[in-house]
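job 3f2a | input accepted
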Amino acid sequence: MDKRLSLLQQILNGDIFRNEKISRHYKLFALIGVYVFITIFMGFVSEWQYVRIGDLKKELQDARNEELTFSSELVNNTRQSAIARQLKENGSALREASTPVIVVK
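job 3f2a | predicted structure (105 res):
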């Protein structure tokens, strides 16, 4: 127990870095620190990209729904009956033909 307390005290005081076994491996500890930092950073980057992909998928679905709405409105507005109704409402002199169309071959 006393040995553990002594080790904890050395770590907190910074005396652990004066130890010869530890001081020989500064470069290794620095490299491990850099790898840990890069790993944490890449985790945050990948999480941010995952959130961004989700936002873009939602935006794409909204755009598809909007396109579908516009397409159906266009189909409804270009039907013959809708065009005839619009002409009638606008008071246009154009009327539907009462005779069928003759196809010349």
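job 3f2a | Helices lie at 2-13, 20-23, 26-77, 80-90.
job 3f2a | closed
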